[in-house]
């Protein structure tokens, strides 16, 4: 695997991307080319920017939004941070960016980044959505079906007098509840299931199914489901606004916290494997970062008014 690109190079690539869309002159283009050639990381960062652009000399029309044209200083910094985060996360960031800008599809129930929401469905089922999640509801005379489009949900199934089966469909297959409380999280490559009560049957789209009992968890792709394992402690702590870590790698913890905030949080490779334990508030990422910095030998280096943060080894003074 290629070495990580320096966060500063990614940030500068985003700056150039936005700048070249804002009435850039030939001198600006020449300066950008000089910057690109001055450092290998700059060249690699600009290659990622090119992937985001789809071409080197301009944004796709779908991304030519008014916010990129002479925004106010604060607004411009927000745009740069969003572009930088997308560049850092190519290709997933590109797809997420395209979705965020198009807004073509609106879910039946959804949450924004950092938002959690609980609703009661027509049959009494309790549905809780985690940050940046989206669900479509398809109740018919023969079944109760939820389509999880993105994110994570917790379900406490209600009693249905018509005895209609309760199912959750994702891009990788279908889950059928067997009188239960369970959570489902959609990842890019698979779906994660955690069962707290009752049981759930997993049926991958093209594979053999299995039943996951209370106190167990599993992940499945479109072709297969992993054997059930013991449920992680605190797997549904997000419903109370907390993230529980028991010797969790710092980079994994940061990936979880990043789901609840805008902007970008990076982790220096030198501290990525640092084991972290504790309870962190997902609704207050600034407080969570303060807790990390005050407890562990790391510093939070902030740029772009806090939109871009890098956790790095603490420098001795």
TrEMBL record:
Pfam families: DUF4880, FecR. It comes from Rugamonas aquatica. Residues 11-52 form the FecR N-terminal domain. It comes from the Bacteria. Residues 109-201 form the FecR protein domain. InterPro entries: FecR, FecR_N, Ferrdict_sens_TM. This is DUF4880 domain-containing protein. One of its GO terms (molecular function) is sigma factor antagonist activity.
């Amino acid at each position: 695997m290629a070495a990580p690109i320096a966060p500063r190079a990614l940030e500068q690539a985003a700056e150039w991307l936005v700048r070249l869309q804002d009435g850039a002159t030939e001198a600006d283009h020449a300066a950008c080319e000089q910057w690109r050639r001055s450092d290998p990381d700059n060249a690699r960062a600009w290659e990622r920017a090119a992937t985001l652009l789809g071409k080197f000399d301009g944004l796709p029309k779908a991304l030519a939004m008014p916010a990129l044209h002479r925004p106010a200083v604060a607004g411009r910094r927000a745009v740069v941070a969003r572009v930088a985060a997308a560049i850092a996360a190519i290709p997933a960031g590109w797809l997420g960016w395209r979705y965020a800008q198009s807004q073509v599809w609106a879910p039946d129930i959804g949450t924004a980044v950092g938002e959690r929401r609980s609703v009661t469905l027509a049959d009494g089922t309790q549905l809780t959505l985690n940050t940046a999640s989206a669900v479509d509801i398809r109740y018919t005379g023969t079944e109760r079906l939820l389509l999880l489009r993105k994110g994570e949900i917790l379900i406490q199934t209600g009693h249905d007098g018509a005895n209609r089966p309760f199912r959750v469909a994702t891009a990788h297959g279908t889950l059928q509840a067997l009188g239960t409380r369970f959570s489902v999280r959609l990842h890019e490559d698979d779906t994660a299931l955690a069962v707290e009560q009752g049981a759930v049957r997993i049926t991958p789209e093209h594979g053999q199914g299995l039943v996951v009992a209370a106190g167990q968890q599993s992940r499945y792709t479109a072709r297969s489901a992993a054997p059930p394992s013991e449920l992680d402690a605190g797997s549904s702590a997000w419903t109370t606004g907390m993230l529980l870590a028991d010797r969790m790698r710092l980079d994994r913890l940061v990936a979880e916290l990043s789901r609840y905030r805008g902007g970008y949080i990076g982790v220096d490779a030198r501290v990525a494997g640092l084991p972290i334990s504790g309870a962190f508030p997902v609704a207050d990422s600034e407080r969570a970062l303060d807790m990390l910095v005050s407890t562990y030998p790391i510093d939070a280096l902030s740029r772009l008014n806090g939109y871009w943060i890098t956790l790095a080894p603490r420098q001795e003074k």
